[in-house]
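TA notes, week 10

Several of you asked for a full example with nothing omitted. So below is the full record: structure tokens for the whole chain, then the designed sequence directly under it. When grading your own attempts, check the secondary structure regions first.
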């Protein structure tokens, strides 16, 4: 009952005009981000970080969260209409969504996608409501040794967030750790690796790095790639009604997708993308007509689209309760919290309950708003798909650079945004994904701080640092995960050798 009363208090906060406007703004921007190919969630949040600087912390974080979960709604639009996924998590939707559009059932596919996202999103938010507070309460027993262990295991596990090679991911994470050492040491007050540049005393601002690598880097990448104009079908309001048979076949996949997405979202990595593939495989296995998959099966739209939305809510649990980002998008979301002086973790729920519960309640409201917004405005989104990239991208670049300057009113920051933007572009061209770099920049200082404070507490005894019960358990779990990944890697190498010898 305490959770219910706290949630009701959160609703009273989230319906305040400023917070409600932030929620509407966030879900609208998120939908547009999902609809427009070439602009992903990470880039959108990174681009908008400086524009939230003048907002109070609660509406700012509500807006960022709205962009995060709202983008998954819009990602299905281009997958179904154009066979071009607006988000990585909507890749699977192309398999059956586009064939449905070719048969004239695009409207039904879009409706099932939106309602499935709403159902699964609600399942995920309920799980977030119930699990985040007790997990944060348990984490209050953590000290520096435990946070050192979490950061160490987090770096080892979370650095492999993407589909690139383990070596490339570890290189990116290590680079992030190195960038995190630049600036004034929080314990000794000594400036490190600043080379006499006073502006570097505050270190590399996570929001500046994010806007550069993910924002400007994405803009350069999009502008240097060829884009062809594609025909987009016209969707009328009466085309949005699924048949009774389509409703019957999509109901169970929505629920199953919600459960699968939530469970996968609790694991480190690109949960939304992984959960959509897992859900698609599960629906194909459960179907009485698996041969229809790939040819326009409604289950192939309902299940994956539900799963990726439930996963989004689940990824918020470790972020809010432990302060750990389990994917690239939540790492950028964490920078939004830090920009407003908010440190996610156990203390957030106890010391700032109005912010935490207001954010949770806004997700319920935003989930309803997305359902109301997406279907009636589908015609508007279709027209946006026809906007040429050579018009759209320069406008986004101007907005990004203006926002970067406004963070500290510093030309120095503006120069670094451009440098990081070029770096992000070159990394993508070389096959490196920058998300592990952000993880390293976030967790590196936590690792260093936990180690230094833990050694001070234990009088320099490293064994005491790793032998405390909670710390030892965390390290043991991390070791098992690493051993499992290593065994899988050796297994793949052996299979490749056997195939090569045949």
């Amino acid at each position: 009952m305490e959770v219910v009363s706290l949630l009701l208090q959160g609703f009273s906060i989230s319906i305040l005009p400023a917070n409600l406007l932030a929620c509407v703004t966030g879900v609208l921007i998120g939908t547009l981000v999902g609809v427009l190919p070439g602009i992903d969630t990470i880039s959108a949040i990174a681009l908008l970080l400086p524009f939230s600087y003048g907002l109070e912390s609660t509406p700012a974080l509500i807006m960022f969260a709205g962009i995060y979960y709202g983008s998954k709604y819009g990602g299905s639009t281009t997958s179904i209409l154009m066979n071009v996924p607006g988000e990585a998590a909507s890749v699977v939707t192309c398999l059956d969504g586009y064939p449905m559009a070719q048969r004239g059932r695009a409207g039904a596919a879009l409706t099932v996608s939106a309602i499935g996202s709403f159902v699964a999103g609600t399942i995920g938010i309920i799980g977030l409501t119930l699990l985040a507070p007790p997990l944060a309460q348990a984490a209050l027993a953590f000290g520096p040794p435990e946070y050192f262990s979490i950061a160490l295991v987090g770096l080892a596990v979370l650095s492999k967030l993407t589909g690139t090679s383990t070596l490339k991911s570890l290189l990116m994470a290590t680079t992030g750790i190195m960038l995190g050492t630049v600036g004034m040491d929080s314990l000794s007050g000594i400036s490190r690796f600043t080379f006499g540049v006073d502006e570097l005393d505050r270190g590399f601002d996570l929001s500046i790095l994010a806007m550069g690598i993910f924002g400007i880097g994405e803009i350069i990448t999009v502008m240097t790639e060829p884009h062809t104009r594609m025909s987009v079908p016209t969707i009328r309001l009466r085309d949005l009604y699924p048949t009774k048979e389509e409703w019957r076949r999509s109901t169970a996949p929505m629920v199953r997708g919600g459960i699968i997405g939530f469970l996968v979202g609790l694991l480190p990595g690109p949960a939304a993308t992984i959960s959509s593939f897992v859900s698609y495989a599960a629906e194909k296995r459960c179907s009485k007509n698996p041969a229809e998959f790939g040819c326009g099966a409604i289950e192939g739209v309902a299940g994956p689209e539900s799963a990726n939305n439930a996963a989004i809510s689940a990824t918020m649990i470790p972020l809010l309760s432990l302060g750990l980002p389990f994917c690239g998008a939540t790492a950028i979301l964490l920078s939004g919290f830090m920009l407003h002086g908010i440190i996610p973790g156990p203390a957030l729920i106890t010391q700032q309950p109005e912010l935490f519960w207001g954010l949770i309640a806004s997700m319920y409201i935003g989930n309803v708003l997305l359902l109301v917004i997406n279907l009636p405005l589908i015609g508007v989104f279709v027209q946006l798909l026809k906007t040429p990239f050579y018009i759209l991208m320069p406008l986004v670049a101007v907005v990004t650079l203006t926002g970067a300057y406004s963070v500290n009113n510093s030309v120095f920051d503006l120069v670094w945004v451009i440098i990081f933007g070029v770096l992000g572009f070159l990394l993508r061209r070389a096959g490196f994904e920058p998300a592990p770099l952000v993880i390293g920049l976030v967790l590196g200082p936590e690792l260093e701080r936990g180690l230094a404070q833990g050694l001070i507490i234990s009088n320099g005894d490293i064994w005491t640092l790793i032998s405390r019960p909670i710390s030892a358990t965390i390290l043991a779990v991390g070791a098992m995960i690493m051993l499992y990944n290593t065994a899988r890697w050796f297994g793949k190498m052996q299979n490749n050798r056997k195939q090569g010898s045949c």
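The beta strands are 183-184, 191-192. Use that as a sanity check on your answer.
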